[in-house]
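Data deposition worksheet. Section B asks for the primary sequence of the deposited chain exactly as it was used as input, without tags or linkers unless they were present during the calculation. Section C holds the resulting structure in token form. Section D is free text for depositor observations; keep each observation to a single sentence. Incomplete worksheets are returned to the depositor.
Section A, Depositor: J.P.
Section B:
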Amino acid sequence: QELSVRSALATNRDLASLIRLLGERQWWSGALAILVLCAIGVGNAAYQSGNLSGAGLGLSALLPVPFAFAVIASSLVSASLILLDRYRVLERVLVILVVLMACLFIGLAVFCLPELFAMHHALILASNASRSLTLVLALIGTTVVPYNLFLHATAARRRWLGVPLAQALQEARTEATLAITLGGIMTIAVMVVATVVLQGESEGPILDRLMIAIDHRLPGVGMWVVGGGLFAAGLTSAIAAPMAAGWTVCGVMGWSTDAQSRPFKVVALSVLGAGLTFALLIPRPDALIIAAQATNAVLLPLIAGILLIVANSALLPAPYRNRRLHNGVAASVILLVLILGLSKVISLVD
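Section C:
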């Protein structure tokens, strides 16, 4: 994220535009464009199906409505906000719901620590080895997805427009550090809660069991907070993924990236429509989450590698290009992500 934000702020260009300029007049420019289009355009359709399923699952837990109806309703809300460019109106409310869910999990994790320490280590390892925890973590959004690099770069460029570059970079790095730290705390909290409250249970869908188990510990509150948090997290991602696809595809193709332009809306709504189709055809959220993870595992190292090339290119002013230390750290992270991604693909195949 630091590389993408630094590249965008230093050049005042979106990451997709930088990638297009990187391959300009090169024989491999076509292949590069196809790779990015597949990674973001096609990949986001897989993520979008999981986003809508998560929102639908949370909404159906809150209200007595069928899962399919909840998914369609979430899609209509997302489409309306994208078309009207009014997604920021709902942003604060959704963020509050996500924060409430985070506080619930962190608070529960603290209370569950004595039980966790009392559990036999073999039981803890067995619980964490199951795929159930992976599915919970994926739905809540703790996985890293390629489109976030493009989305964060565009958002940062627009947010700090007109701010001195040094100040903008410092504020962006501080914000990213805080977000990553909180995300890590949330991940650990979810793992602790899921390990403790689901021990010994194996019947029924994992996400339903988790919400029921939490509601038993917090009667009348747990289901509402978890359901509302899942709905908010899914809906925010269901809006962000199509918009990121619109910015990225339009940037790579040289089209207008304005949210009110026709190309942007066509791309964004196409991703939304594809996600809705998959979410309705494959009503099991677990299957959609696994598909999104597999797609993410393959595409993330490729996009990160392209970003590393951009950060070393002459497109950036010399003072803001990568140094050896930056390259070493970035290459290590990409290698780690590649290893984890391949491991994830192998585990999913098995």
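Section D:
The CA atoms of residues 258 and 279 lie 28 Å apart.
The chain has 14 helices and no strands.
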